[in-house]
Amino acid sequence: xxxxxxxxGETAPxxxxxxxxxxxxxxxxxxxxxxTCFNFAELSRRGYxxxxxxxxxxxxxxxxxxxxxxxxxxxxxxxxGKFEDEIRPTLKHTGAxxxxxxxxxxxxxxxxxxxxxxxxxxxxxxxxxxxxVYSGMGVxxxxxxxxxxxxxxxxxxxxxxxxxxxxxxx
Length: 170
Fold this sequence. Notes:
11% of the residues lie in helices and 26% in strands. The chain is of the alpha+beta class. The longest helix is centred in the N-terminal third of the chain and has 12 residues, at 34-45. The protein has 2 helices and 9 strands, in the order ββαββββββαβ. The radius of gyration is 15 Å and the shape is globular. Strand 1 (14-19) and strand 2 form a beta hairpin. The chain starts with 13 loop residues before the first strand and ends with a strand. The relative contact order is 0.28.
């Protein structure tokens, strides 16, 4: 009988993204945001993000993905529906490359996430910060420069070809 791989900060401290614009790896803050990190790593392990797009890009602010509908209105967590925030006063939107949960208000986390392109202190205390870009920040910056149309949607899809938990950063 096959044993299910347990995801935690020791077995999967990173998640790697292979995108249509290049690869990047994020480091997860397991000790601070266990449920959020598990949700993100498990969705990645299941292939939930594979084939999805960065549906919202705002230059000098953030790139957002994780919605299988590509509209910014979809997505569920591994716990079913939505789950509570894990906001920590020590984890802030201090600069480019911060990984956070996108939400529609308090305790509405699902599958959507964003990566900052600049400091965003007005978001502190409103979104769970649960990681940072470990490698591939140039890819994040390039995604942040794509042409967008109405609703900050890229005019050409930026596809997450594959996302997966990793024990080591590549």
